[in-house]
Amino acid sequence: MAFSSPRYAFNFFIIVLACLTIGNSQPILNSVEQESVYRVLESLNTDVLWRALFPDDLCYSAPHGVVCDYAPVTGTLNIVELSFGYVSDFSSNPTCSPNSTLLDPFIFSSFPYLRKLFFYKCFTQQPVSLPDLSRVGSGLEELVFINNPSLFGSLSDSIGNMTSLRRLIITGTNVSGKIPAGFGQLTNLEEATLSRNSLGGDIPDDFSNLKNLKVLDLSQNGFTGKLPGTIGGLENLLKLDLSTNRFSGVIPETMKGLRGLEFLDLSDNRFVGGGVPMFLSNMSKLKWVYLSGNELGGVIPDIWENLKGINGIGLSRVGLIGEIPVSMGVFLKNLSYLGLDNNKLTGGVPIEFEKLGSLNELHLNNNNLSGKVPFSVGFMGKVGRKLRLDGNSELCVGEGVVKSFYKVKKCNEIENPRSALVYGTSSSTRIGNHIYWVSLVFIFIFM
User: Average pLDDT of the chain?
Assistant: First the structure.
C-alpha cells in the first residue's frame, strides 16, 4: 500500500509506535504500593476479586477511590488518595463489607505521598483499631472516618506530626481518650470534626494555636471541665459546636473575639450563671445560636438590634425569667426558629412576632405567660403544630382558633374586657366596652 503523501506516512508511524509502546509498557506504580493497595482492598471486602478485576498498574486502571499523582520531588507516580465506602453514584468508592477490618495497622506507612485517607461506613460490626498513622508521610491533608461504630482506639500524640493536615473528621465512632497535647501543632488545620465519639477530658489550651481553624465540632462526646478562655483566639472560626457534653462553669467572656462566627451551639452542657451572654451582640454574623439545656438564668437581654441576620435561636431550659423583649419581633426579620420553652417567662406574647415573615417554628410552651395570644388565625395556621403554647395556664386564644390544636383555653371575653377592647373586631363590642369603663369612672367619682 502506497501513501499519497509524507504526512500520511508520518501519522501511520506514530500510530504503530504508540501501539508498540502500550503493548510493552510496564507498571509505573512501584510494587510496594501496588501490593499494599490490594491488601487494603482485600481487608475491606473479601467478596470482591480485586486482583482479577484490576490486574494491571493501579495508576493506569483502579477502583474509583484509588488516585495517583506525580511526587513533586522524585517525579514518580504514587498513591495520593484512598477513599473507601460507598457514598453516592457520583462518588462510587470501593464498597466495604459488613465484616471489613484492617489486618495490618501499619499498612498506611507504605504510602509516603498519601494526601487523603477516607472511610465511610466501613467498620460497622467487627472491632477495628484506629490505624497507626505515625508513619504516614507528613503530606497527609485529609483524614476522614465517618459513621464507623466499630472503630476503637485513641488519638495518638503523634498526630501533631501531621503538619499538613487541613481536615480531621472522626465522627460516629467509638474512638475514646483525650485530645492529645500536640493537637495545637496542627497549625494548618481548617476543620476539626470529632463529634459522636467517646472522647473526654479537657480541651487543651494550645487550641489557640489553630489560627486557620474554621470548623470546630466536638459535639456528643464526654468532654468535661471549663471552656478555656483561649478559645476566643480562634478568630477565623465560622462554626463552633460543643453541644451534648459535660462542660461546666461560666461561658467565657473571651468568646467575644469570635467576631466571624456564624454557628454557635453550646446546648446541653452544664454551664451555669451569667445569663444569656451579652457578648453575643458583638457577633454580628451569627446565623444560629443554641444555648438550651444550661442553667444560665437571668432575663432575655435586649441585644437583638445587632443580630438582625440571625435565623435560629435556642434558649430552651435555661432558667429564663422576666418578659420576652419586643425587640426580638422588631429586628429579627430573618428568624425562622425561636425556642423559649421550659423557662419561667412571664407577661404576654409580643404581637410583633407575627411580623416575622420567615418564622415557621415558635416554642413558648411550659412558661408562665399570660393574656390573649395576639396572633391572627392566618399566622397560627401557617406555623401550625410548630407553634407550641401549651403549659401556660394563664394563656388563652380568641375566636376562630381551634384551642385543642394548641392545648390552650379559650379566652372569656366577658371576664377579660380589656382584652376584648384591644383585640375585639366587632364595633358593638367596642361600644359596649366604652360604656362599661365610663360607668366605672362615674361610680368611682360620685361614691
Answer: 86
